[in-house]
Amino acid sequence: MEGQKKHFNVREIREQFPALRRLIYGKNLIYFDNGATSQKPQMVLDAINMYYSKDNANIHRGVHYMSQKATTGFEDARQIIQKYINANKSEEIIFTKGTTDSINLVAFSFGQLLNAGDEVIISAMEHHSNIVPWQMMCERRGCILKIAPINKKGELIMADFEALLNSKTKLVSITHISNTLGTINPIKEITQKAHAVGAKVLIDGAQSIQHMKIDVKDIDCDFFAFSSHKVFGPTGVGVLYGKEAILEKMPPYQGGGDMIAKVTFEKTTYNELPFKFEAGTPHIAGVICLGKAIEFLSQFDIEAVQKHEHDLMEYAQDMLSTFEGVNIIGEAKKKTSVVSFTVDGIHPFDIGTLLDKQGIAVRTGHHCTQPLMDFYKIPGTIRASFAFYNTKEEIDTFIEAVEKSINMLK
Ligand SMILES: Cc1ncc(COP(=O)(O)O)c(C=O)c1O
Known about the structure:
By secondary structure, the protein is an alpha/beta fold. It has two domains: about 10-40 and about 300-410, Alpha-Beta Complex (Aspartate Aminotransferase, domain 1); about 45-300, 3-Layer(aba) Sandwich (Aspartate Aminotransferase, domain 2), CATH 3.40.640. It is about 40% helix and about 15% strand. The chain is globular, with a radius of gyration of 22 Å. The chain starts with 9 loop residues before the first helix and ends with a helix. Pyridoxal-5'-phosphate (PLP) binds near residues 99 and 227.
């Protein structure tokens, strides 16, 4: 993974993604729904096939060859991820079902350490999976959920966030990049301020791991959550990074096989990290292939990836802004990879449907951020979200298609 990075060449990258070659209604697919899920490179597809064709076995408990091979592949993936996000130890990498599951794990387990009256802060731009688990936890534990507000551009209002912090704040859980607005939050500064009052910090990295360098030591966050399927890996698997000292204090999330040290009917003792949080047979192929996806991404200079995606976003946004009646939703100074917009008098779903007929996949609706839609007083947006395999030519075609769709629907 270390050492010489491949020169960033979007044509060569595209060749690695078979799904990008397919036709939709006879048109070349333009895939701009990367915020929902990314396409998978050949290397990951081959690894899935290889695992189920040759190496399929359960992990950790078997003495036989295939079980040991699967275990090694699984634990190697843990190390690949540890190095990629610069965690101190592989014990700090817990495999989950995805970002949602990672956040629920913290809400349940860390939540057990909280008392009535303790406070949790989230922001107004969170995905439902970083809202609802905290609402449920606060209801269970008698805690108070506070919402850090944003301005019309879609930026966190730092002064208001700071005003919410106090000695009762026990956790700040915030998205790194908004899936709806593309806003990049100042997570290092947020972490410093939260730590200053003794609060822990969870970063929802669902929309950042695939777009920028993640260094959990540098951020100094206590938890970092992400999903495999948004970073070119399989669905149904994800990661929770947690600082060892905090994970040690947290009780298990679920009970079952693998998470125990000793079980008797009188008393059960729990396994050490990370297994304490990994009850039952995990998504073994998924974890191994997430490792492959991270290896795939690490071949490239992530700063070149980020620049390419930022250029795409600005290009699309600048062109869309010239259309009469088009409103860009989310104009933060620091944003990336996502352009959300509405068109006066036209429902987002209608534009999305017409774009689909032209082979263009975008997402329409509330993007699992209903409170954000309420804030902007809109039913939803049309969202184009880019990955490093997208091109300016695709955006040109998309812009033409948007114009055509608007003219048809007017
Ligand atoms: C910012 C953000 N957080 C959390 C999630 C939930 O991810 P998953 O459904 O993979 O658990 C998403 C998915 O779109 C997201 O964009």
